[in-house]
């Protein structure tokens, strides 16, 4: 079965206004993700879920049809990814289109490639709830992260007897680039309640996620 790819793209953005269609090195940001998706499947299996007429127009110029905008109840900043994904699945199933799994791609990861999505797909199987892309975190809770105790003193977030950073367990940070989700699991519970989750490791460059103007400026320099 050809994979279903869903790319959510809200119109509002506080960190970088209009970032999903803002030009990054001459291309709308969302185009990088669409191009990666087209390496995996045909445009008929790619859904851009948006509440914005402007994003809809740009996406259709790129070549991906957006049949309709999200309903009003899914167009606020309080609505999470879970509700958006469920809505799109329900709409497809009403049309008789069923998928065992979906690939959720955020438009804010311009350096994630189609090759990496293919590699992640090879690691996924139907026994999982989700396969998710990660990078090794620099902020290791065993070694560098601290919390305040009841007296206001800083204590390690996780205790471990080690003198060197390389001696503590590796800790993985979700980088937001690739989520391969079991559709049946998604219908039963939200993503933060998934338990059978495995990882696909990505490098720091590919893991760049654009959330702030500093992230944007870094991406511009790297592409230049």
UniProtKB/TrEMBL annotation:
Q: Does the keyword Transcription apply?
A: no
Q: Which residues form a coiled coil?
A: none
**Highest taxon of the lineage:** Bacteria
Q: Which UniProt keywords apply?
A: Nucleotidyltransferase, Transferase
One Pfam short name = CTP_transf_3
Organism, as annotated? Gelidibacter maritimus
Q: Which InterPro entries match?
A: CMP-NeuNAc_synthase (IPR050793), Cytidylyl_trans (IPR003329), Nucleotide-diphossugar_trans (IPR029044)
The protein's name:
Acylneuraminate cytidylyltransferase family protein
Q: Name one GO molecular function term.
A: N-acylneuraminate cytidylyltransferase activity
Query: What CDD domains does the record tag this protein with?
Result: CMP-NeuAc_Synthase (cd02513)
């Amino acid at each position: 079965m050809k994979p279903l790819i869903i790319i959510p793209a809200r119109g509002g953005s506080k960190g970088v206004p209009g970032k999903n269609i803002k030009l990054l090195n001459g291309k709308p940001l969302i185009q990088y993700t669409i191009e990666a998706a087209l390496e995996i499947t045909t445009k008929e299996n790619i859904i851009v879920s948006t509440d914005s007429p402007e994003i809809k127009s740009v996406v259709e110029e790129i070549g991906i049809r957006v049949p309709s905008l999200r309903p009003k109840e899914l167009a606020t900043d309080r609505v999470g990814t879970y509700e958006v994904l469920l809505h799109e699945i329900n709409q497809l199933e009403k049309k008789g289109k069923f998928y065992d799994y979906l690939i959720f791609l955020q438009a804010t990861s311009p350096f994630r490639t189609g090759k990496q999505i293919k590699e992640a797909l090879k690691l996924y199987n139907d026994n999982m709830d989700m396969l998710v892309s990660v990078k090794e975190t620099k902020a290791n809770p065993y070694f560098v992260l601290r919390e305040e105790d009841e007296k206001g003193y800083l204590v390690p977030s996780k205790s471990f007897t080690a003198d060197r950073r390389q001696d503590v367990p590796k800790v993985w940070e979700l980088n937001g680039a690739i989520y391969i989700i079991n559709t049946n699991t998604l219908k039963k519970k939200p993503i933060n309640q998934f338990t059978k989750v495995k990882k696909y490791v990505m490098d720091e460059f590919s893991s760049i996620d654009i959330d702030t103007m500093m992230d944007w400026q870094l991406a511009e320099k790297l592409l230049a």
